[in-house]
Amino acid sequence: MDFILLLQAAIMGIVEGITEFLPISSTGHLILASELMDFWTKQKSDVFVVAIQMGAIAAVIYEYWNKLWGAATGLVTGEKKGRHLGLSLILASIPIMLVGLSFGQEVKDYLFNDISVAMGLIIGGLIIWWVEKNPPKVNAAEVDNISFKEAFYIGLIQVLALIPGTSRSGATIIGAMMLGVSRKAATEFSFFLGIPVIIGAGLLDLYRNYHVFSGAQDWWVLGFGTLVSFVSALFLIRVLVAYVAKRDFMVFAWYRIISGLIILFFALTGYKLW
């Protein structure tokens, strides 16, 4: 077993776990981290970047099991709150499932690069900054209060997350806030909405590209990175929920803008960050 490769996989797992639920783009950071470390071949790294996100989303399932189980069983039993949340998540998942299945590979082929990441970070940062400066009126204080119409609109906004650098969490949290969902409810709904999207994308990418992994060691590296992403994401989820209860996302807006400008500068000038 290649120790350096395992160490790189662990670093990628930590990057994924920390960035998946922050509005700063986990995919963008994973692409940059893989290039920084010269992690694996391009083919293997691209599959790893998508598949490892399933570890982070498993942390959401673990942390919110009771509420998610209530949403799943509510679809069958008709229990009001559970059924409403379950249907809301289904409605919100439809747009990205359709677009992702139709154009996911094209996005991966043409937009998994530094310039796309930089532009996604900058534009997303400016949107976060604007929303925080002009906070909308809250009409849905809890995740159970999000209407079907609002859920579907959040799902449409989530389609933007296919572009690296945009951030699925950033798009859904800020998009929900623009629709009048409270910061806490928007964050939790974003957590839940990632489950079908990320698991679906990860399994589909593995099915389409399993042939790039040449042996048992490759699968061990992928499994180890996924485990690390689970542990680090579980920690981040608990910290983030406590954070959004007291603070805004302005720090992430500035982080996105500054880091995007730095990445864009190096990408356009040809200088190397490393």
Automatic annotation (TrEMBL):
Keywords: Antibiotic resistance, Cell inner membrane, Cell membrane, Cell shape, Cell wall biogenesis/degradation, Hydrolase, Membrane, Peptidoglycan synthesis, Transmembrane, Transmembrane helix. GO terms for molecular function: undecaprenyl-diphosphatase activity. Its EC number is 3.6.1.27. Belongs to the UppP family. It comes from the Bacteria. It comes from Acinetobacter larvae. The chain crosses the membrane at residues 47-65, 85-103, 110-131, 151-177, 189-207, 219-241, 253-271. InterPro entries: UppP (IPR003824). This is Undecaprenyl-diphosphatase. The keyword Chaperone does not apply. One of its GO terms (biological process) is regulation of cell shape.
